[in-house]
Specification:
mainly alpha
Length: about 70
């Protein structure tokens, strides 16, 4: 484990202390848990791929399955 020092505003540290007490965790453990959840959520969102921009990219082309097969199997 790595030790670091972080500065928090007074109102934020007060909220962190209250939340840590409510969950029966130390402030450090509470902060680690919150950060782990946030980082996991961000990582999950990054893996989602939006394919909506590809919708209809072939709509103006005269392409059917037989034409594709004939070109692919030459």
């Amino acid at each position: 484990m790595h030790r670091t020092q972080i500065y928090f505003e007074d109102d934020l540290i007060s909220d962190i202390k209250k939340a840590a007490q409510q969950t029966n965790l130390s402030m450090s453990a509470y902060i680690r848990n919150v950060l782990k959840k946030e980082l996991a959520q961000q990582k999950a969102e990054q893996t989602k791929v939006d394919f909506s921009g590809f919708t209809g990219i072939w709509q103006d082309r005269d392409v059917d399955q037989e034409k594709l097969r004939s070109k692919a199997w030459k």
